[in-house]
Amino acid sequence: WQIGGLLVNNLLPLRLGEVARAYWAGHKSSISKTSVFATIVVERVLDVVSIALAAVLFLSLLGLNRGETEGRLKIAMIALGLIAALAVVAVLYWKNADKEKLKTKLAGILPHKILDLLHKFASGLVIFKDKRGLAEIIILSPFIWAVDILVLSVISRSLELNLTFLQAGLTVVGLILGVMVPAAPGAAGTYEAGGVAALTLMGFDKTRALSFVLLLHAFQYVFILLLGIPCLALEGFNPKKMLAEMKEDKD
């Protein structure tokens, strides 16, 4: 369903693929759709933490931690990391809090339906109870990022940019930051802005950087389209049926 969510993100604005992925995954299983969505929120929180740490690391290793522009970028990455850390603290507080006591307090403030959704959302944060699973995520994440960076480094040879591993790493950071912004379908515009900003920060020509990012985005878009449609078809994804069920849930 990861590729399916990316496909929907490429076709619809505001990263609605995340909602569609949670809804359809919940439909295909006995797990609450709200609980599934909570796991996606955990993914995004961990992504922000990883990106913030990676940005600071690559900026330092490349010697780009000096100057006004670089300093602002580094501060922005640290801010992202602090936001993610606060989110993790909030999640851990919810996990360790006296659920009944907290629920009683919230019952006097929130409507019953919202309180029920909040409870289902919290039940999807089970990963924080699974120390082994959380450790596996922390250990495997750097390897997954390394694969993405190596692929980008190899592709950069097509336009003779010849990015090193560190340069490709900082470029990936810029691209991911662009994708995180809920904007146009396929992160059109923000994806290019993030990639070009990272490449020009390292001294690459802006025109060549834009050509490379556009080529990369087009390749990614076509690949997800060709792979995503068959995957959704095999899973029995039906947009009309999903929208009808969403309407029923709303009613």
Quick synopsis:
The chain contains eleven helices and no strands. The protein is mainly alpha-helical.
Describe this structure in words.
With 251 residues, the chain is mainly α. The protein has helices spanning 2-11, 16-28, 33-61, 68-96, 99-107, 112-123, 131-155, 165-180, 190-201, 206-234, 239-250. α1 packs antiparallel against α2. It starts with a helix and ends with a helix.
Q: How would you classify the helix and strand content by structural class?
A: mainly alpha
The major sheet is characterized as: none
**What's the average pLDDT?**
76
Number of helices: 11
Beta percentage is under 5%
Shape: globular
Distance between the termini: 27 Å
How many distinct beta strands? Answer: 0
The percent range for helix content is over 70%
> What is the N-to-C order of secondary-structure elements (H for helix, E for strand)?
HHHHHHHHHHH
